[in-house]
């Protein structure tokens, strides 16, 4: 079994203390709170023996930082000694002094005498030396997952997959783990992350409240993928392409160890009858692009032991390098399949926009093997 749980610190839903909103009042709507994570203090607490530290992977702490400064955070009953605080827009790391032996518990003492605690998790080396696909999903069909894996096995030499499962209801994490075990991978694991995704309504900046995905990828960096040969961060509906060989090789050979992949939307072939496309949609059905092309936010591939790879990981970029053209390489990118969506997040069907001009896309046909 390769379902690997996290070690979180989660506040009681009814208080006595909850996270304030990261958005200022002028951006909030009356329904800006549903979906917002008020209760997760840390998604995972990881003991790094070589660093003599326990690292807490947290959403932005906002007012909860006061618990730390008030001495409420303890390690095996002793006040935590904070070595470092790393802050990003949707993520924080707290580094606590520790020895080489994994502590029994990290605890947070709350007002009113309440306490929450967990035993720290430890790093896992199953992905050492592997070319890893990294993703987070919710209820994507197994057929899509299998095709996504096989495309990256064939075109880029991917041999491992790490999946963060965010509250799937159509199958269990154990089911997903068993499915991955049928795909001929050298290593795989599923990490359940049973927390709010963070999709909210707001006047502006609502993405600022989507903490989970960024935190999940940094749990991957801290706990699972530090020794990997390369990490390719894509969603199930996205497939990397390269005219220069494997994107893992391109990233590894670059001066930074990091490759930013520009994205392009791809669509089903036009349906002149208007009768709709029957049956199950696959990656390989996305053979057309918009004219002119429609782009989407970049994704990335990195060598984790590079200077870039040791920075905090985000959904579309890594650390301070972000999306600078300095980190792109001609002849690489990814295709984003418009109709591969369960629409769980926003309820919208991802059909081609009315009036969109579509053209046959040779790159897609080559990637799908047509």
Note the overall shape.
Answer: globular
Count of helix runs: 6
What is the end-to-end distance? Answer: 36 Å
CATH architecture of the largest domain: Alpha-Beta Complex
CATH topology of the largest domain: Spore Coat Polysaccharide Biosynthesis Protein SpsA, Chain A
Structure overview:
This protein is an alpha+beta fold and 370 residues long. It is built from 6 helices and 20 strands. A hairpin with a 2-residue loop joins strand 7 (82-88) and strand 8 (91-97).
Topology:
Elements: E1 9-10, E2 40-42, E3 44-48, E4 53-58, H1 65-69, E5 73-75, E6 78-79, E7 82-88, E8 91-97, E9 106-109, E10 115-118, E11 131-137, H2 142-156, E12 160-165, H3 173-180, E13 187-192, H4 212-224, E14 230-233, E15 238-242, H5 247-253, E16 258-268, E17 286-290, E18 295-302, E19 332-337, E20 358-360, H6 362-368
Parallel strand pairs: 11-12, 11-14, 12-13, 16-19
Antiparallel strand pairs: 1-2, 3-4, 4-8, 5-6, 5-9, 7-8, 9-10, 14-18, 15-19, 16-17, 16-18, 17-20
